[in-house]
Write a structure and sequence with these properties.
nine-stranded mixed beta sheet, two-stranded antiparallel ribbon, alpha/beta, 391 residues
């Protein structure tokens, strides 16, 4: 609790350092400090600053006096010290989570399983460094070849083929399109297919809220257009029992989220639900935490932090992005660098609902387009949904 209070005191004195504190609300043990930190982030997103008086309107007299007392005992407010506080709290929260997991495992783990875990721990004690010989890596490759590749189908065979089978763990995929071109429709079409296939995943909805996306999925199940939610509500209410449970999709309404908040939420969902990947809809709407940073640098950092998270947690990520009116992608170099594959959604001239995907870049496959103007690969079904299906 002392470390939590020292961090809060330091941030009151040095609010700009909140961008240095890579820590989530859930890493706090003390409810008061957690709430204050949450509001600090909110104030920072709103006006890129916060002062003591900002908390006067949201705290009771007693709690405001308590915050003043904490702030008066600041020891150090340097960026480096704030990073150290945050690191300590993050690691402490991780230890507590591991201890809880051990307690839960201990309830049902057989003695033989415990001995195996102990043996693994003893073996790892002699391999604390990250340096490996070529022979060790060769053995890892041999073991990996004995296992099927971790790959999840998008449900669109033409896209799966271009991806070399589907969505691979630790890979990042970018899908870019013009405004109102159907990026979100393609994303929730893939999400729907993944859910039907039993693939647990998350959807970070920045532009279109989760309820609107689910309305489209429900309409797809019922074989109607989602406009029915506006003009035929009573009939839909009667048919909702027909809808199958959607237990493999976890939505996060993310308006105003920073990349740190995406990572914080994704970490929890990975840990709690074991998701295989998530969708970010869309890239340019991820909020900045540093007002002095250029937009291009901000977007480049967002893409790279998400790519690092995918590799660290062995999950896939689909990042949607919006192209300018001239068909170019602002800051596209950062997204291209972060992605294993980058696609541009193209609309067929004269065919309102037909699309194809131009592969802009690929690290691991041949650079082959998914369809063309002459032979489009995707059709937007507007009779139900809407959603994308293969031509």
């Amino acid at each position: 609790m002392e470390i939590e209070q020292m961090l809060i005191a330091a941030l009151i004195v040095n609010p700009t350092a909140i961008t240095e504190a890579e820590i989530g609300d859930g890493d706090f043990s003390d409810e008061f400090c957690r709430d204050v930190f949450f509001n600090m982030k909110k104030f920072w997103h709103q006006k890129q600053d916060f002062v003591m008086s900002d908390f006067r309107e949201i705290l009771s007299d007693d709690l405001y006096a308590h915050l003043q007392e904490i702030a008066s005992n600041v020891l150090s407010s340097s960026n480096e010290q704030i990073r150290e506080y945050a690191l300590y709290l993050r690691q402490d929260a991780e230890k507590k989570m591991i201890l809880r997991a051990i307690g839960e495992i201990n309830e049902g783990m057989a003695l033989a399983d415990m001995r195996n875990v102990l043996a693994d721990i003893k073996n790892s004690e002699t391999k604390t460094d990250k340096c490996k010989t070529g022979e060790e890596i060769l053995e890892e490759i041999k073991k990996s070849l004995d296992m099927p590749p971790a790959c999840d189908k998008t449900g669109l065979q033409c896209l799966d083929t271009a991806m070399g089978g589907g969505l691979y763990q630790s890979f990042v995929y970018g899908i870019c399109g013009a405004e109102k071109s159907g990026k979100t429709t393609l994303a929730h079409s893939i999400s729907y297919n993944l859910d039907k296939a039993g693939v647990k995943h998350a959807y970070f909805a920045f532009e279109m809220g989760s309820s609107f996306i689910e309305q489209r999925n429900i309409s797809r199940d019922l074989g109607i257009n989602s406009l029915s939610f506006l003009n035929n509500r009573e009939q839909i209410k009667k048919r909702l029992e027909e809808i199958p449970k959607r237990e493999n999709i976890f939505y996060v309404d993310s308006a105003g989220y920073t990349v740190y908040e995406i990572i914080e939420q994704a970490s929890r969902i990975v840990s709690k639900h074991g998701i295989k990947g998530f969708i970010v809809d869309y890239w340019q709407l991820v909020a900045s935490v540093e007002h002095r940073q250029t937009e291009e640098k901000h977007l480049r950092d967002v893409a790279q932090k998400l790519a690092d998270f995918a590799k660290k947690n062995n999950i896939w990520i689909i990042i949607l992005a919006q192209m300018n009116a001239d068909g170019r992608l602002f800051g596209g170099g950062g997204l291209k660098k972060a992605c294993e594959q980058l696609y541009m959604m193209r609309q067929v001239e004269g065919a309102e609902h037909m699309r194809w995907l131009e592969m802009e870049a690929s690290r691991y496959t041949l650079q082959v387009n998914v369809g063309s103007d002459a032979v489009p690969s995707l059709n937007m079904n507007i009779r139900s949904g809407p959603y994308f299906e293969e031509v």
